[in-house]
Predict the structure.
Amino acid sequence: MNDLALLLTPEGRALLDEVRDTDPARELAVATRLRREHPAELVSAALGQARLRQRAVVKFGAEDAGRMFFTPNGVEQSTRASVAAYRARRMAGLGVTSVADLCCGIGGDAIALARAGIRVLAVDRDPQTAAAARANADALGLAGLVEVREADVTDVDTAGFDAVFVDPARRGGRGRIFDPEAYSPPLSWAVSAARRASRAAALKIAPGVPHEAVPEDAEAEWISDGGDVKEAVLWFGTEPGAVRATLLPGPRTLLSRGLPDPEVRPPGRYLYEPDGAVIRAHLVAEVADRVDGGLLDATIAYVTADALHPTPYATAYEITDHLPFNLKKLKALLRERRVGTLTVKKRGSAVEPEELRRKVKPQGPHAATVFLTRVAGAPAMLIGHPARA
């Protein structure tokens, strides 16, 4: 918190501007030069903040990251801006005008909510984190809509707000926490707080949460951004029992229709790799239905079909070869096809992609994709390339 206080002074802000593009390889030389004119503590704080801002660009974009203030945990744990903006738009679409943002971190979700015109009470019990959230609301011109409070979220009265958003801490001293009741605060407390909200509530949870842990009165949404699964959200006050996968950018949303598991069938001309959010949401059957396909194996989320049916919820590949798993045969085939650029994808195989590349030594001007998987229980290799519509 003392570092942040130093950086918020006129001297600190000017120094931040000076070091913002510092190459990490030149930090020592830059620090040595700057300490001749500025206190060593301030120089260290500015260079540390510059590093955090550079790391934050991937989540917040260069413009916002260059003005915001971060803690190491804040960069790591904050919501990606595109995901926070999507959730804020959804909140606004539900008629929400005020939100209690509990466990607000450095304020990423509070910023998105305020930009959607929603009044926010942002709460975090960590003094440094709360100070960063307050500085960020001010830096982005949103202080009029965001009140930051340093407090234990379990002591906060949310009765005066339309909605509640809770992002429990899912990391501890030993890394990620997988038991929802070991979150801080526990998921059961967050669910109770959500049920008390007058209009709606959203709880951010790990995408690997077991489906049986989802309350019956909640909607479960899995979100990916650019093909990477980012989080799961439990919504209250929307569609109890609904399950959806939302893909960003877009957004594109696939809703569960309660379809039975697809049948297993022999490999067809096309293989479909569902988006990770679709897989986490257990909506592979909905994708198979869209492409008139079935599964290669009952336990693996690869869909096979005889025809190309482009869908945003899966990437299609045209399969040219289907072989039992055999590295010598694969190496010979790749040599014959003069494949030098090899993309390796796997599900249900113990072989690591880098290990396979070392062994087959691809060389040549052409490219191919190999899927290491199982077909009806048997280890197999499917070779192909991205399908062209």
